[in-house]
Design a protein that fits this description.
This protein is an alpha+beta fold and about 475 residues long. It is built from 13 helices and 13 strands. The strands form 3 sheets. Strands 1, 2, 3, 4, 5 and 6 form a 6-stranded antiparallel β-sheet that branches. Strand 12 and strand 13 form a beta hairpin. Helix 3 packs parallel to helix 5, helix 5 packs parallel to helix 8 and helix 7 crosses helix 8. The longest helix is centred in the N-terminal third of the chain and has 25 residues. It is elongated. The mean pLDDT is about 95.
């Protein structure tokens, strides 16, 4: 995160102007984080920069050509106001109180030209402005705080109505025949839906999932700053230092009242807007339901579904290879075909780990040209590189069975017959599979070694090719 430096100019210095705009655009992408001194410093820089008219203009006067007025007065105001909007939505009460008055003033200034651009770029500019505010949580803000600045709310609702009318009449062209169909449909889809993070009985396979029958599943996701408690038939989350695992959905706005009713919104739970992180690392704003009752007599739990860290030390260290066990299919560089897991959700998290046993190559694998594959030597202490995937227990059972010729490990046989517990990480058990009985040593084939090397490089990018080769050579026994 770079420091934001804003200076209002009498005479335009375009390199500096565009650098300042780039800086606040990047800051808009950041999560609101009152615990981060640099984030707070940047927010304070923006608040201190606000002009007496409520704008965040980069030039000292509006008496400039109209296109420059849009670019360097109104656009910066939209961006900074969207930053305050996001902070107001997702921050705690202290942060919301700090930004409320400047936000109201910024919203008022943002109404001056109906978000339109300059001249023949008027409609294009309106689309650009909407996309800026969408990054700040525009729809959620209008939902939750319509009265904070009624002029701004009325403007957005009016623009939204115009965009819907354009779609209904298939009017997608601009003043000069420009095609804006993709932009119009994207914005209408944004306003017609809400993103909702669920973590209990609304998840797939749970009792209330039917409330999401008309919704679109997006991904497994997590939210920071919460911990979970067991109420009995359902879970509850409250603000705390923790992480909650759930699922992210795109929900038609028409379905939100029924979900609010299910959750007892306003009494049992409060609907909040928070930053959610998907398993792909992408962050987005979404609704979640925060418990509004006392949890002092409730049991604290890690998650509503049961998760474990599956630790791989062989070919599954390569993420692409591991996904074949979850999604089904065969890895292009070797290995057999794998049946898909019933739950094909990607791992919640991936972390590197050191395993306290040596890795060696053994057995004769038909999937890898009759050569050896990875096992752990559990007869003594040692050191092996491992990659831990946070997946459900059901997914782990599937992976363990697929690694063991379709049969869940039972301690008997020649392949991965034994489940080993390696401790805990972040409150979840670390488990792997191997064979406690040493398998006959057998060198791996070139393809298998290459897959391991790719997996190591993917997870330990700081390791040199020589270091990787030395590690793999140390695992080969005659």
């Amino acid at each position: 995160m770079n420091d934001i430096i804003l200076n209002r100019q009498d005479q335009p210095e375009f390199d500096q102007l565009y650098a300042m705009i780039g800086g606040i655009k990047n800051f808009l992408e950041e999560d609101s984080n009152i615990e981060n001194e640099k984030w707070i410093g940047n927010l304070e820089a923006i608040l201190d920069f606000q002009d007496t008219d409520g704008s965040f203009k980069l030039l000292s006067s509006y008496r400039i050509p109209s296109d420059a007025r849009v670019d360097f007065c109104y656009i910066p105001t939209y961006i900074c106001t969207a930053i305050l909007m996001k902070a107001y939505l997702t921050g705690d009460s202290t942060l919301s109180e700090r930004v409320e008055k400047p936000l109201i003033q910024g919203l008022e200034n943002s109404c001056l030209r109906n978000l339109k651009g300059h001249g023949y770029d008027g409609f294009k500019g309106q689309i650009e402005a909407l996309n800026i505010f969408m990054k700040g949580g525009l729809r959620e803000f209008i939902d939750l705080y319509p009265d904070l600045n009624s002029n701004f709310t009325d403007m957005i609702l009016n623009i939204q109505s115009q965009f819907k009318s354009r779609e209904a009449h298939e009017n997608f062209t601009g003043q000069w025949g420009e095609d804006y169909k993709e932009d119009i449909l994207k914005i209408n889809k944004y306003f017609n839906n809400r993103q909702v993070f669920v973590y209990g009985t609304l998840m797939k396979g749970e009792s209330n999932h039917h409330f999401l029958d008309n919704s679109t599943y997006l991904k497994v996701a997590t939210v920071n700053g919460y911990e979970m408690y067991n109420v009995g038939y359902f879970p509850a989350i409250i603000p705390a230092e923790g992480k909650v695992i759930g699922e992210l959905y795109q929900v038609p706005i028409s379905q939100m009242p029924s979900i609010d009713m299910l959750e007892g919104e306003g009494s049992l739970y409060i609907r909040k807007c928070k930053s959610i992180q998907g398993v792909d690392g992408e962050k987005t704003l979404a609704y979640l339901y925060e418990y509004a009752q006392d949890v002092s007599n409730l049991e604290k739990i890690n998650s509503w579904k049961e998760y474990v860290w599956y630790v791989s030390y062989g070919s599954n260290m390569l993420y692409e290879r591991f996904l074949c066990y979850i999604e089904g299919g065969a890895f292009e560089d070797g290995g057999s075909y794998n049946e898909p897991c019933k739950d094909t959700s990607a791992p919640v998290e991936v972390k590197t780990i050191e395993i306290p046993h040596d890795m060696y190559f053994g057995n004769y694998s038909g999937s890898w040209n009759g050569c050896g594959v990875s096992f752990l030597d559990t007869t003594k202490k040692g050191h092996a590189l491992g990659v831990a995937y946070l997946i459900t227990k059901e997914q782990f059972k599937h992976v363990a069975s697929e690694e063991n010729c379709g049969r869940y490990p039972n301690g008997y046989g020649s392949w991965y017959e034994d489940i080993k517990f390696l401790g805990q990480m972040d409150g979840y058990e670390l488990v792997t599979i191997t064979n406690d009985n040493l398998r006959p040593y057998n060198k791996p084939c070139k393809e298998y070694l290459n897959t391991l090397a790719r997996g190591i490089k993917e997870n330990w990018p700081e390791m040199s090719e020589e270091d990787i080769n030395n590690y793999l050579d140390s695992c080969i026994h005659e």
